[in-house]
Design brief:
Length: 246
C-alpha cells in the first residue's frame, strides 16, 4: 500500500501486523545521454511496484534528493542534483523519529546509488543509517529514560537480540543489489546492467538512440536488452523479498 493513500485504520492495522514500511532512496544523477537522471530511484520503485502486488507492504513516497556527488559529470546542463549529506541528516533523523512515534517498528530503506561496497558505505546510505541510529537512541531515551539499556528490565537484551527483537533492528538499510544476489549480472553505472534493468522496469527512461560512445562507463549499454534486464529484475526481487521478510 502507498502510505500517502492509507486511511488511519489501515495504518494501525499495518503497525499491529508489523508490515514492512519501505523508503525508496536514491538520487538524481547523470546516467549518460541515453538514460533518465532518476534511474537509481526508479530502479527501487520499479521493484517495489511488483512486490506491492504480492506481499503486505507499505511504501513511503520515494526520496530522490540524496548526495549524488559530481564524480560522474559536472551538473551544468547535465542534470545531476547533489544535496550534501550534512543537509540530509536532520531531515532523515526527523523522518525516522516521526515513523517511530507513529508506531512503526519494521522500517526499511532500499537504496541504489554507489552501493557496490555497501558495508563501507557512501554518503547517501551512511547518512540515513546514522540518522536511523540517532532517531532510535533519542526515541528510546524519551520513552524509557536515560540508562534504559542498563536497567534490570534489559537483562535479557542479548537473548532478545538473537531472537530478532532488538530495537536497533527497527530500521534497516539494504542495497538494491548485493554481490551474492547479482552473481554474474553486470554492476555498472549507465552500462549494460543498469540500462537493461531500466528497459525492463521503466522503458520510457531509456533511449538507446542517444547512447554516446564518448563515456567509457556507458559503452557497454550497447549490449543492453530487456531480456537481460528481466533476469536482473528477478534476482533483485528474490533478494528484496528476503530482506523484507517476505
Amino acid at each position: 500500500m502507498r502510505y500517502e493513500k492509507m486511511l488511519p485504520h489501515q495504518i494501525r492495522a499495518a503497525i499491529d501486523a508489523r508490515w514492512p514500511i519501505v523508503l525508496p532512496l536514491g538520487v538524481l544523477e547523470y546516467h549518460g545521454e541515453h538514460m533518465s537522471v532518476g534511474m537509481d530511484t526508479l530502479a527501487v520503485t520499479g521493484v517495489l511496484d511488483i512486490l506491492e502486488k504480492e506481499m503486505n507492504l507499505v511504501i513511503l513516497p520515494p526520496f530522490y534528493y540524496g548526495a549524488a556527488s559530481y564524480a560522474v559529470e559536472p551538473p551544468e546542463r547535465n542534470g545531476t542534483l547533489h544535496v550534501d549529506a550534512e543537509a540530509l541528516l536532520p531531515f532523515a533523523r526527523a523522518m525516522f523519529q516521526g515513523l517511530l512515534r507513529i508506531g512503526f517498528r519494521n522500517i526499511h530503506v532500499v537504496v541504489h546509488h554507489q552501493t557496490e561496497n555497501f558495508l563501507a558505505g557512501m554518503p547517501t546510505d551512511l547518512v540515513f543509517k546514522l540518522a536511523a541510529r540517532q532517531a532510535i537512541f533519542a526515541f528510546l531515551e524519551k520513552e524509557r529514560g536515560e540508562g534504559w539499556w542498563g536497567n534490570e528490565k534489559m537483562a535479557d537484551y542479548y537473548a532478545q537480540q538473537s531472537a530478532g527483537d532488538d530495537p536497533f533492528n527497527w530500521v534497516k538499510a539494504h542495497p538494491l543489489m548485493t554481490p551474492d544476489a547479482m552473481d554474474g549480472y553486470p554492476f555498472d553505472h549507465a552500462g549494460e546492467g543498469e540500462t537493461s534493468l531500466m528497459m525492463a522496469l521503466s522503458p520510457a527512461a531509456v533511449d538507446l538512440s542517444r547512447l554516446s560512445q564518448d563515456k567509457w562507463y556507458a559503452r557497454s549499454a550497447r549490449q543492453a536488452s530487456v531480456e537481460r534486464g528481466l533476469k536482473g529484475r528477478d534476482r533483485i526481487l528474490a533478494w528484496i523479498r528476503r530482506a523484507l521478510g517476505g
